[in-house]
Amino acid sequence: MSEAPTPAEGTARLNTAVAHNARVWNYWIGGKDNYEVDHRVGDHVASMFPLIRDIARADREFLGRAVRFLAEERGVRQFLDIGTGLPTADNTHEIAQRIAPESRIVYVDNDPIVLIHARTLLTGMPQGVTDYIDADVHDPDTILERAGGTLDFTRPVAVMMLGILNFVLDTDKARDIARRVMAAVPSGSFLVLTHPTHEAELGGEGQIPAMKFWNENATPPITARSRAEIASFFDGLELVEPGLVSCAQWRSDLHAPVVVPQFGAVAVKP
């Protein structure tokens, strides 16, 4: 298990003068690990695009359904969660290890406030392993090399990329990152992904001005993509039913869930 960064190390990189996605997202879902600047920017974005709070909640609920599906129905026991974000209730390792205590989870993030909370993430069932890697999604080779110390890449791995490739602004580069990570895991592995869209069918037009404001006032910069662009991240994989849909509707138990402009899907590597 890698050594978790100390609070001092995380604080040295922490900039509380500029709103940051991990903290604003935490604010939108009711967390406490955020600052006044995050409240101001988060509230302004929400005033421009009220659905954003629904997106944040729907994305979190999708994570829970996807991990339960993979652990219960597909027998997955290894998870590589890239773009962890701040810990809240029911993190990936908690859901997976509740079903299968022997599950092994590696979290990946490079946000300084997440580093401060890394020790919270590094608590799991003693039968399994929960580890944390300080790395950037733009550097998949480093992620894979370090994750290989905890995960067995000869056995299926669920690669979680929830709301992370939208911070890779170049679509070809984002597609290459997904391809390179999935190339390193064996047949029977899964890609679990959510991504914001500007598609009108999901009510995504309002994301465009809200994201423009975000990119001018917060960090890191973000982009929305079309259904076709997001679908391309699954090239070479087989989508699990119901395919690429609003993440709120993916295997949802709700009779009429709110449709949010955030695509979500799970795909298996043949």
Detailed description of the structure:
The chain has 270 residues and is of the alpha/beta class. 39% of the residues lie in helices and 16% in strands. The chain contains eleven helices and ten strands. The strands form two sheets. Strands 2, 3, 4, 5, 6, 8, 9 and 10 form an eight-stranded mixed sheet that branches. A two-stranded parallel sheet has the order 1-7. Helix 2 packs across helix 3, helix 3 (36-48) runs antiparallel to helix 10 and helix 4 packs parallel to helix 5. The radius of gyration is 17 Å and the shape is globular. Mean pLDDT is 89; it is low at 1-12.
Number of strands: 10
Helix tally equals 11
Low-confidence stretches: 1-12
Beta-strand residue fraction: 15-25%
H-E string: HEHHHEHEHHEHEHEHEHEEE
What's the helix and strand layout?
Elements: H1 7-12, E1 19-20, H2 21-28, H3 36-48, H4 51-73, E2 78-82, H5 92-99, E3 104-109, H6 112-116, H7 118-121, E4 129-134, H8 140-147, E5 158-162, H9 171-183, E6 190-196, H10 207-217, E7 218-219, H11 227-231, E8 238-239, E9 245-246, E10 262-268
Helix pairs in contact: 2-3, 3-10, 4-5
Identify the notable features of this structure and list them briefly:
disordered N terminus; 11 helices; 270 residues; alpha/beta; eight-stranded mixed sheet; two-stranded parallel ribbon
